[in-house]
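Table S5 (text form). Sequence records supplied for joint modeling of the two-component complex.
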Amino acid sequence: MVVKIGLLGFGTVASGVPFLLAENAEKIEKAAQDSIEVAKVLVKDDAEKERLLAAGHDYNFVTNIDEILADEDIAIVVELMGRIEPAKTFITRALEAGKHIVTANKDLLAVHGSELRALAEEKGLALYYEAAVAGGIPILRTLVNSLAADKVTRILGVLNGTSNFMLTKMVDEGWTYEKALQTAQELGYAESDPTNDVEGIDAAYKAVILSQFAFGMTVDFDHVAHKGISNITPEDVAVAQELGYVIKLVGDIQETTTGISAEVSPTFLPKNHPLASVNGVMNAVFVESIGIGQSMYYGPGAGQKPTATSVTADIIRIVRRLKDKTIGKAFNEYSRPLQLAAPSDVKSEYYFSIVAPDKNGKMLRLAEIFNSEEISFKQILQQAANGETARLVIVTHEMSKTQLENVTAKLAQESDFTVLNTFKVLGE
Amino acid sequence: MVVKIGLLGFGTVASGVPFLLAENAEKIEKAAQDSIEVAKVLVKDDAEKERLLAAGHDYNFVTNIDEILADEDIAIVVELMGRIEPAKTFITRALEAGKHIVTANKDLLAVHGSELRALAEEKGLALYYEAAVAGGIPILRTLVNSLAADKVTRILGVLNGTSNFMLTKMVDEGWTYEKALQTAQELGYAESDPTNDVEGIDAAYKAVILSQFAFGMTVDFDHVAHKGISNITPEDVAVAQELGYVIKLVGDIQETTTGISAEVSPTFLPKNHPLASVNGVMNAVFVESIGIGQSMYYGPGAGQKPTATSVTADIIRIVRRLKDKTIGKAFNEYSRPLQLAAPSDVKSEYYFSIVAPDKNGKMLRLAEIFNSEEISFKQILQQAANGETARLVIVTHEMSKTQLENVTAKLAQESDFTVLNTFKVLGE
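The corresponding structure-token record, covering 856 residues in total, follows.
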């Protein structure tokens, strides 16, 4: 039998799907036990259709979604347009028309996932999205299948290739943020508006999805505090190196006794931590669990072929389940009621970079402020003063989010101190 | 419904299975959709049974395999005794009695896997063994499911925790092989007879299994050339560091135009290669493929809970498939006729450590020998001579196994040269 699919969009990733289907036809057909055919491809308008045909792409391009939805031969709709709309409308209509869905759309799933999953479940249809988190890394299905017997306690992830490329250049080559961004844009890694990548929004979308698979809890995007890399200075990078750390933008989801906490923030990682050597545009997900202990899944977070590989694995799985008559199982069946951790329960070491007047007693005053919140110092570094001001770097012992908030408020009230940056520090 | 399992053996790993079943009962039952119960546990004799009962282990211990095989309520037999016999006989008999099998027995699967898989297939029974390769790392199921659309071209693996612990100490602390071995034995990482670990035999067993999952080809254990770490000297370690490499014992399986080649050997890895920072008892499998490109799966290669996590994931999968009525599919369905690569087709850079008389013309003679086999030098290092002999270190450009064999034979004929060591070098 031939299972027919409809592709929505024919951008970089989408064109990788027919490439893999052709290149690995024999292996894929053995795994799927049926052959897979791209029956129709939805493109924006006639101009795009003409352009693609002229470029030698030999597909049945259509410009109206109805031509795919009304085609009873098409069993699977593969959405690779990205962004919320019209993807959301098209997927909703495709589910209503009885089509199984494969998508790589993390924005959509992070924000409207519950709704779409509920519809798919109601209709007994598959909704798979391995490629939505960390592109080529098969982390979602691994959490479902291989960690089924395990209990995840924490996930730390380098989840955004663009910001990781920029930070790698800032660390290895001493580049400024501005130079790193400009280069990332020139290389096509960053868009002209880089906000989603550099402010941790893209990584926060992925953290929402990872929370569901690893902890069975559906956090909202708004529950994921996110902080980006745009205010990291060469001084921060240099101090991190001096103290034995590497700065990475890390998605951190952990379960405490009161619930789960998810955030994305620049984090000092000890140099010997497996995530510390994840460089360039690569991604990695580091999992702490009571069974396996520590494991890490490393690979490209984006790109045509890696993403298409994850998408095609989802397609194969659907075709196989159609054959086995086990279709309709949710991609992730692990689900518990959402409980968010109390801020007093979420603990970490922290780095503070503070500018103070170069005069007697400033260290004493700073110590008094931290001490009043019962925060103790692990490392202190005073950098060469310029006669007027000095830069103080403090790494604290473990403290809670509540303590962090309180001490930050107190420091803001002191006219002598200006907090330049506060970053999380992962203990050894 | 309750699915009952029979455990064969109650060593470290086996006792981790009931721990996980209890600790994660709720999540496991959701994933399996039935509850799982350890009905009987086979132990060696009455003395062991009494000892375990006295230690507070509250199981139905039996000393005769027939009590498990004849028990119609037991659906799954979990073999965790290790070694070939009596494991092979017990698994064979269990399959004949209609039981599904989960095992972590790499020795058995590498040597007698084909036979056992054929029997399981004939009987329509499951034979799963995720834990047999790299303990807690879910590499086998990931290759089956997530790389279904991909074509693997090379696998490089740090597959033996004991030897990796030893090499890490030799590299980081400058320990000798002897000191590293003694410490590994004291810590319980190495057995009193460490042959399987340090000579690459254990890693070669795992390479046999990985070849089936990644390349669909069943190589025999005898096809996997293996070389261990016992002849690595502190001088080799120091030179590696000087040249920017780390020495690891690496399982290397690759597909060339003529077929596949699998071997286990000490390998110089560039310091920035993801495998280079896999330290201590940790394992990792680095996969090169046409779709994903480069990905790596990192975690503990052994240990009670990691291994039990993989075993329990296999059990859950069987229970779920019993429920879904899709039981009996082979763990790995990817299969192609075996084709072994021609030695002239398997290429790498190589490191040679050679002792030569400290006299004129030795470098010329050496260059002549390598040149006669069309092997060119990438790096040459002459170490301080002691007046009588000098140590020459050569890193070659890429050359084939055939060239390696020829040049090694020629060097052996030269009375002036003694080749101390030859190791593979992974190019950047």
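Note: The two ends of chain A are 55 Å apart (CA to CA).
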